[in-house]
Design brief:
Two copies of one chain form a homodimer.
Chain A: E1 26-27, H1 30-39, E2 42-49, E3 52-59, E4 61-63, E5 66-72, H2 76-81, E6 87-99, E7 107-117, E8 120-121, H3 124-138, H4 142-145, H5 151-155, E9 157-163, E10 166-172, E11 190-198, E12 202-203, H6 215-218
Antiparallel strand pairs in A: 1-10, 2-3, 2-6, 4-5, 5-9, 6-7, 6-11, 7-10, 8-9
Chain lengths: ~230, ~230
């Protein structure tokens, strides 16, 4: 399993998380992994049910070395995931389209994280804490502004945690890399940068005229690790 | 398996793709599924290797009822996926953050597609066709502008196809839905719309001054099914 160094610079590389293709794009240290996780907020959870793999896109939050995600009690898949089976957590931030002079050298710029592990269900006080972590991961400060869950609401949510113990990050940056013999071709090559665009917020019909527009809804931004 | 109607309005609903939680968000007809696939271009492929699920984020293209994706020959995972094992294809477009007056009612607006199936490796003439489909799915018209792959390059690419036979789409739109008793709370509620932002293209160092900037690099846009 993971070869542990000190807590700040823990290394999560194992045989299963080591990049074979393009090893130079791999990162295995906690700061590199955490920076990507803190800019992202959507993940894809891979798991197996009766021999069939499924992939569930969902929001997540990070608290130190723990990733939390959640779903409704009626979402059977969350209970399956929380039962201790092996899962694959993946999250990717797309940074651009890489247009080369040859079709073969086209690529994308991106930063991604993979975490392998066996998640656990979260209960009691940690459940409320986890929901705060997820809410504030997506919209920092939101939890403090809204009505917190009642016990009845908490009972309807399944919360799952995954420890970051076996993981990798993968990053591609920069321009296309064409073959020498293609450099002279008279076709445009370069990068079209891609990012998320957060637009002006629309109030809900029942928002009410007196509710002040919070800072995160005026000009929503993410921390960036780039 | 899938209950087939006519080709244009085929239905892909099975027990495994039927939404249990929030069934009103489910769509099972081909036009609904195709519209989401045509706006998206990143998917997450779930598969199992030695009992461990993995999720691979990658680009894809659609040609009728076929989804194509690809990778380098050295990417062992593509060969595993193409060996006929069951996979889960998932693609999601995020449309907004849904901020309710209670933590429990927070959500996201999104459109997602799940396709279950056993993909096949693509060979010979179909391989070049599939690469054209993928390239032009991400950047329409790009294939026609660049040098097409040599046989040596084609031999280095693994191309996989997945038939859309068992699938579902899931869509959430609109404002937050708060409990009646929360409507009077003096906290802002509403939607922060999210979309992809395509920025001004940067030419590569070897682009050359005479290569004309193509239309897709001046003002890149996607077809939208919204």
């Amino acid at each position: 399993m993971s070869e542990k160094q000190n807590d700040k610079n823990q290394v999560f590389q194992t045989g299963r998380t080591t990049l074979v293709r393009r090893p130079e794009r791999g990162r295995y240290d906690f700061p590199a992994i955490a920076a990507i996780l803190d800019e992202a907020y959507i993940c894809n959870i891979g798991f197996v049910l009766e021999g069939q793999p499924y992939v569930l896109p969902t929001a997540f939050g990070r608290d130190g070395h723990i990733i939390y995600f959640h779903g409704h009690l009626e979402n059977h898949m969350l209970n399956v995931i929380g039962s201790g089976i092996p899962i694959c957590f993946t999250s990717m931030i797309l940074d651009g389209f890489v247009l080369a002079k040859s079709a073969f050298r086209h690529s994308m710029n991106y930063r991604s994280v993979v975490v392998l592990g066996r998640p656990k269900l979260v209960h009691d006080a940690e459940k409320q804490h986890a929901l705060r972590v997820i809410t504030n991961h997506v919209i920092p400060g939101r939890w403090e502004d809204v009505r917190t869950p009642t016990q009845e609401e908490l009972d309807k949510v399944v919360v799952v945690k995954l420890a970051i113990e076996e993981a990798s990050a993968k990053v591609r940056t920069g321009p296309p890399v064409d073959l020498d013999e293609d450099h002279g071709r008279d076709v445009w090559s370069g990068v079209i940068p891609v990012s998320q665009n957060y637009h002006a917020a629309h109030p809900a019909p029942d928002c009410g005229a007196t509710a002040p527009l919070p800072k995160y809804a005026v000009n929503y931004t993410r921390p960036t690790g780039r």
